[in-house]
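ok so heres the complex, two chains, lmk if somethin looks off
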Amino acid sequence: MSEWISTLALAVAAVVLLSAYVSWRAGRLDRLHTRVETAYAALDAALLRRGAVVLELASSPALEPASAVLLGDAAARARRAHGEGRAARELAESNLSRALRAVLSEPGFAEEMTVPEGATEDVVADVEASAKRVMLARRFYNNAVAGIREARSSRLVRLLRLAGSAPMPEFFEMDDEPPATAPM
Amino acid sequence: MRIGLVCPYTWEVPGGVQQHVGDLAEALLHLGHEVSVLAPCDSETELPPYLVSAGRAVPVPYNGSVARLSFGFRAAGRVRRWIREGAFDVLHVHEPAAPSLSLLACWVAEGPIVATFHASTPRSRALAASAGALQPALEKINGRIAVSDAARKTLVEHLGGDAVLVPNGVAVDRYTEARPLDGWPGEGGAIGFLGRLDESRKGLGVLLDAFDILGRERTGLRLLIAGPGDTAEVRERVAPELRDRVVCLGRVDEVDKVRAYHSVDVFCAPNLGGESFGIVLAEAMSAGAPILASDIPAFSHVLREGEAGHLFTTGDPADLARGAAELLDSGERREALSHAARAAVRAYDWRTVAADVVRVYETVLPLERRQGPVTAGRQEPV
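and the predicted structre for the whole thing:
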């Protein structure tokens, strides 16, 4: 009799432990999803900010018009691709990175666009900073995506459908290499 | 007159604008003007004597693809030096809305500026977005030229204002003399076609249908087809018993193209529409080929309503076949059409076109003729 009870107690304990573990795994998945969402919001904000700052640079009267048109065109396309799906956006943002690198690395750019001593606004520095922030934000987002993709690939998660109907997050693939201005 | 021409695209890359600038420069030189052309170049060697290199163009995403353009302050510095050394009476920039040398030249220069607009693109929001950056530089242009109605329409829509129409010219002399391709035109007669094979507007299908009639009546008649596209597909469309009399050259180089025009008894332009000018037709006329063309408005205009070439009902293979038969049967008629075509195409010769361009220059020159040349203006380095 007592043997029967102790077996039952063991079984109950096993079920409790197992469900606690499963619930912990589900909670972890949930946290990972939240992390992806937060990281995506940060990436989105970083891209939008870069676009806005590039447009500001493009309208700077100090910049020669050919570079201004190139930057304006690339930034406008990136902004429009915002609502056109992931692939279109990745392409447009990559093109903006390339256009930025091409324009900022032209010899003479750094000298001509240097702000006078004591000025408070430096739009070129803003552009460079925003481009670096895009690179960081994308790296963090892709890390989060990699984490959740790995977590969701485990047998337990797939068997018990712990991820529910949440869509599988995709990596954000783009050329995010920030510009480097040519040495003076 | 001292004239400075600016080409925004790499000189060595084949393209409509580059060709236009080169032909215009040579025609202006022929008219006795002094000409210097500034363009991005890949190499400094084997350039024509009038050309000044602005260095290599840089590949950059623009307008939905990757374009090779010259931009940046160093390029602007080169333009400035060229303008200063050239001391031009008039500066003539091409395609100044493209973010390259021509736009920089407008930005840098002070003085009489003429601009030619080549591109015809449907209205796009991207161009509208960059119009703000373009406006101050483009406002310095004194005279605007468009090469076609479509280019003029684009200009009016995107940037406002109007332009005078001066079409592309044809370098007639380049086509006048050539040796026919080996074995052509042959005893039984030959009909020629040049154009993209897979573009239905070029009307190759109409010609093939007509050949199905003609080829059976005339056992020696051959068809010479030149142009890029799937040649196997074309041969597939021809009845098997006629197939070996249809010769497809594929894409041909400039030399073989001229020889091809001289290799046929009748040159056929069966286009269904959409041509604004018909450069191929004008080249064939320069070569003195007897022309058989569809009666779309552009062609009837160039062929003087049938005086300089035989017109048939657009898209009608039977009418094409009748016209071709008439020409093939009468050497006299072919001779007459050949002469008439050579005379008519003179109106489109680069020398005629260049004279029109010079008239535009004269209009923008200040009345006090020696008010001084174009200068690098207020953008002088400190």
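quick notes: Chain B is about 40% helix and 15% strand. thats all i got rn
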